[in-house]
Amino acid sequence: MGKDALPKNWPAGIPYLSGPSYAPHITKSQYQVAKTKTLDLVTEIPRDFPRGPSSLVRIVPIRDPSHPADGQAGLFATKHLSPGSLILPYYGLAHSSVPPHSLAHEQSDYDLWLDRDAGLAVDAEKAGNEARFVNDFRGVATRPNCEFRECWDLRRGERCMAVFVLPAGKNGIKKAVVGIGKGEELLVSYGKGFWGKRRHEGEGEGEGEDRGIYEGHNP
Q1: SS3 call for 143
Q2: Which end of the chain, C or N, has fewer beta carbons within 10 A?
Q3: Cα–Cα distance measured from residue 23 to residue 5, given in angstroms and rounded to the nearest whole number
Q4: pTM
Q5: How buried is residue 169: exposed, middle or buried, by Cβ count under 10 Å (0-12/13-18/19+)?
Q6: Residue 102 has what pLDDT?
C-alpha cells in the first residue's frame, strides 16, 4: 500500500490493514469459526461500507499533560457521528489465544477477543487500522462515547470487531445527547480486566484479572 493510501499521522513501521490478517498457526476450525455467522451475530457491516482509510476519523497526536495519552495519539471525529452508527472495523492479526501462540500477545494492549470459546483473538499491536488509536475514557471524560462491538462483515463473509458510537440512553448518555460531535475524541471503556491487569503489573503482582473483550492503548 502506497504512502498516499495511509491515514495522516499513521506511525512508521506499522503496516496499515484494510482487512484482517490471519496468523499462520490459526487452525482450520478457528478459521471456520471466523467464517461462520451465528444467530446472535445480528450487527452487520454493510457491503457498501468503504474500505481503507476512514473519512469519519483522524489520528491526532496528543500534546496535553493532563491527558493519559499525552505524547501518544488519539482518534477524533471529522464530522458528526450519529448515535449507534458504525465508525470503522477493528483490524489486526487474528491469532490463537491458546498457549504457546498466546505468549506473543500477552503484553499487547491491542488484543480483543473474537471468540473466547474458540480461543480466537485479534491483536492490532504490530499491524492494524485507525481503530487501534481509540483511547480509554478514564482521565479524559466522564463516560465513553463509543464501544467495541462484535459484528458480521457482509463484504468479506466473516466476523470481526468494530467501533460503534454508543446508542442514546446507553452508559448514562442522555437521549438528548446525539452521538459524537466533530472534533471530539473517540473514547471507549477498556474494561476492568485491562486496568486490573495493568495495576497488578505495576505492583509486580502478576497479570491480575483475566483480560476482557476490550483491550487496547496506542503507544
Answers
A1: coil
A2: N
A3: 24
A4: 0.82
A5: exposed
A6: 61
